[in-house]
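Re: weekly structure request thread

Next one in the queue (734 aa):
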Amino acid sequence: MTISNEASAGMETVELEPLREDKKKIFEDILEYFETHQRGYIKVPTGWGKTFLSKHIMNKYYEEGKLVLFLISKNNPLLSQTYYDRKKNRPLFPNSALLSSEQKVSRKEIAEALKKAGQEKGEGFVLFASLQTVLGKQASEIKELLLEYTDIAIVDEIHNFINNRGNDFLNEFGEQTKILGMTATPFQGVVGNVKFVDEIAGDMREVYAKTLPECILDDELAPLKYTIAESSEDIFEIFDFEKGLDELDRQDLYLDCSTVDKLKKVIHRTQLAKDVYDSLVKQRNSKTLVFCAPVRKRVYGAGEDGEEINAFHAKLTASVFNGEISAPELEKDSDPVLPLDFENYTPEGEFTYAAFMTSELPKEEQSALLAAFREAGKPPYVLCTVGMLIEGFDFPGLETLILLRPTLSMRLFEQQVGRVTRLSPASGKYRGNIFEIADSIDSLYQHFGEGVFNGEKVDQVQMLQPEIRLEELFSEGDAARAIEEGKIEISKVDFSNFRKGKGKGKGKGKDVQAVEVPVRLPPTALRAKYFSRLLAITEEKDIGAFEREKRELMRGALRFRVRELRDAEELANLSGQINKLKREAYEDRRLGDVSRQHKPKVFGEVEWLLKLQALNSLKYHGERISMPEKNRILKTLGFDPDIRKIDSYRLKCLKLGSAQKNIPDLVKVLGFVSRLSSSETYQFLDKKKKEQWKREFLPSVYWGFCFIDDSPELRELFESTEWDRRVKNIIRQK
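Done, posted below.
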């Protein structure tokens, strides 16, 4: 049926399992919020239960005779999953409808139901719909009726509605319509071009938030073990950098399989994932999901008539896991030939041990494949995919995830992690396990040199490192306590020299014991290593005013955190290195007048900003550090060991490093920055003025960020939604 109207036929009404006491309080707080506000969103990790909570909110409005819209951006399984009561195999809400391009529905019938619900206001009605269907030509009447009569729109994955047609649609609703967004990742885009949910509208506000570590500590999500498997592969040799570092402007890198050597490297890297699986995934009958990388060019030795192969890496990975393709054997072959066809079935017609999921598979086969993957004790045990199952795939029993695709999108990364964090008492799962294959990024600094200072390339290059993404993922909430209690484990395994035996298939060859080494957050040593690379590139340059270098070094300085003495020791060494470069710059005969004027000042400002960041970290995030330890940290950083004087040390850094010598000067300059950076003003600045703005005033943003807790004026300025995204990105990515 297009319209479910079981209530009028005397059928059962809505049946929902009750909310736990903690979520009942959240439910009540959200309802109270919307008594005085029109828009808001909740931010909770994947698997927390936001869809279940939304059903209770829908039911509250439904019972009051209101018109409810449950909206997602694209058609995916989540829409029908939310619409149906799977236990009773009928719609959850007796008076409701499902509108999507995948359903054969009568638009006229839905329009009549919406008109009746909107005009009579006696009986509740819920429409479950995808944005792409609502905005379709055949649904124009439905769209207008929704805009006129909807009482509340609940928008799932609201991060997909930022600065696009979805955003425009939400802003067409009048004041009578409440808009509640739900997301695990309230942002969209890649590093350097991040858009945030609160940009949807000026009054879009966070109503409730809970972090992944907090949910794990409260036993709402499964404990997590994250293992970084280091390979010996150079990322430049594995992935396609035909367009240089501009390739990092996408959310994914593309594999390069266009030559025999490139193909062998990709197969060798994929074999490493199989070695990790054989060595570290203990419960072989558990289920494992593998996210593979996209391939842009034609694959050498595969396909017919030069055709590209859809989701090639997913198919290749399944074949490697099935033992059909072996990296050691291909090493001997100067001209390897891959299968013309990749199969998901054994000769007996069953699914293979490892299978691939691609968009080209018929819908029926996709459904059968997912159903088999969810079933315990039956193949496939490993499911490989490229871009599918990242969102809207609910499988609590999934225990293991293998990442074969580096990503530049924190949203995508968090969604991938969320696949294994759901609790599953029925399956006996006690934690989620993630293994990421990590390649060396060192050569990118060598290949591209000072090109890394262009745009947002510094952050993008470093985001390829798992430790950097993990620090970002666990930057909020009590991650330190979760790690101490063993509920979050992060380790590293060096697989660069790891080899399996030469036998073919599962279980052949002798295992080599993999040694796991704990990884600590923050990854100060790793950040210091790549910060030193940036310093070395800056030192080699002998012309210009070093504006790009200054901007990126200052941004990099604000990424550091001090959690214990060893962090301070790393930063003290780095500070000494910067100071040495500053002194040498004064004597550098290569430099012309302009460069000699600017280069030492750049190093000087970065040195003091780095120390200020260390002090801020100690002051505002050092609650787990003992007083004697804090004093030792101060001494290591070059200050008197008296934590009571930390604010005077912070002001000293500002005075010696910044053009603004005190907080009132910062407030004055940043007020000017605020006016310049507004969209209305910035678009009228000529190129010369914009460059002057960046050179003279933008550094004050970094200094000001360090003192927002010391000045109400600075806090008000930095929390303003009026700042253009150019400045907001700088602030919010700290």
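The CA atoms of residues 360 and 413 lie 24 Å apart. The longest strand covers residues 224-234.
Next request, please.
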